[in-house]
Amino acid sequence: MKFEEIEVLMRKNEALSEQYILPENFIIVRLDGKGFTKLTKEKLELEKPFDERFHLAMAATMQHLFMVGFRVIYGYTQSDEISLLIHKDENTFSRKVRKFNSVLAGEASAFFSLQFQQIGVFDCRTIAIPNHDMILDYFCWRQEDSHRNSLSAYCYWTLIKNNFTAKQAATKIEKMSQSDKNELLYQFGINYNDLPVWQKRGVGMYSKEVVKQGFNPVTQLSLECMRNELYLETKIPIREDYRLFLNSILKSK
Ligand SMILES: Nc1nc2c(ncn2[C@@H]2O[C@H](COP(=O)(O)OP(=O)(O)O)[C@@H](O)[C@H]2O)c(=O)[nH]1
Ligand SMILES: [Mg+2]
Question: What Pfam families does UniProt report for this protein, alphabetically (predicted)?
């Protein structure tokens, strides 16, 4: 077989196995740390259940992903995951799914690894989102996941710190309701409501217009100008208020 023929066949198979996000759909990508249970336990020496340095590294990784060539409207991170909402008119890489997944996973993995000088790998999946309501549902779903996991993680590590074995702790909290878990923490002197919001709900990021003080060198006068800056919301609201918050970001884009 000649190389010209091989090339034609290879390119044909490559093109036929390509998938695209359909036009007029928003794109949500979710990146998740691969094997981070082990990485966070064995290599990074983190505070349990939540570590501020790790959380800030995740937020910085998310911020980096706003600047790698996609039109990101909103970012959300909790635990070892990052979700990004990408504009429905984004046409980079002709909306090829594997380009989005591979570029974003590569960028996140490289950026995160540099911060800890340890290899941290992210996978990435792409979800087509046809309307606004689904965007709101998606982010409320991830926030609820954050809240559930955070409450369980606090219970688990509180029991471990109080001499329970891993198995005993897991069994004890397995069938507990949310209010039972709150009660358990209370017995150990922890009021779950008083914990930092980022640990319970995660954090959001979006670009926001801010007023900046400038200086006109010609007139020698100071002046105010508007600039777009990435803003990290560390106190995101819940339920209906979160939907309103997300809607106001969507409206401005
Ligand atoms: N110690 C610590 N661990 C964390 C923190 N954030 C996330 N993790 C860990 O990251 C894991 C993420 O869960 P998951 O993605 O399901 O696990 P994976 O499949 O092993 O990556 C959790 O099990 C936590 O152990 C943190 O702030 N501190
Ligand atoms: Mg993970």
Answer: Thg1, Thg1C
